[in-house]
Amino acid sequence: MTFKSLTALALAAVLLPLSPVHAADYDPPIYVDQAPDYQPVEVGSGWYLRGDVGYAINKPYEFSETPAGFSTNTQGFSGSVGMGYHFNDYLRGELNFGMLPTSSFDNAFVTTCARTQTTTVVNSASVVTSQTSALESPVASCNGSNNGQNRAFDGMASAFVDLGTYVGLTPYVGGGVGIAYTSYSLTQNARKCVNGNPVSTTDLSGNTTTITTTCLDPSNYAGTSSSEKQFSVTYSLDAGFAYQVSKNLSLDLGYQYVALPSAKYVSFDSAGTPSINKGLSYQTVKLGLRYDLW
């Protein structure tokens, strides 16, 4: 082999690895996109649930004086449940539904009831004679009563301003407006007439006389009744403070003034005379819990 041939082979061996490589000679690179970081979504952020019980300081249906035979059952307790929303660290709103204080009254008295008297005579020969007559004066008195009842419920939309937190306590002020559903019933001069037990006597001749007293038509003793159900506007003024018991739970102690300017209710005066009144208001102390939904 000549020198030129050897030189050509040597150059070919050196230059061959430097030749360009075609795409078919290797696999393309694989790029993997990194998944985005998981961001948890807060469900119910800003919302909270609440419930409370209250007691009216001035029972709205109470009387300073009551006549003899007058009894009352006035419940100063109230309660509500609802939900609220924190718009920011200072402003929040609520929607609550509740039961307001209730009352019932009974003014008992003694009156008279008209009766008829039936006299039946059975003589010794078993001949029966009977006579019925109206009694102008009843043989016995009967019991009468005037009674009334009040009920109330409401739905209230309220706004509150939290005034900052100091030594764990968050004072607040607020107010609300809503719709109240009220009802009253009143019955006057209801009487309880009771039929008399038959009274029999027998004379020396063997004649038996039986006297029976019977109430007249019972509808005459039902008295007069009236009732009304209505919706009316109500409003409240509130103040209090909250204490955070845990991350999600707060204890709420507050004062509330509630007014129902056009609500009707029944009451009795010091002489026991019933009347229908308009306009109701009371003050209550409330204890409640708030649970944040986050």
TrEMBL record:
This is Outer membrane beta-barrel protein. Residues 1-23 form the signal peptide. Coiled coil: none annotated. The keyword Signal applies. It comes from the Bacteria. Gene3D superfamilies: 2.40.160.20. SUPFAM superfamilies: OMPA-like. The keyword Nucleotide-binding does not apply. Keywords: Signal.
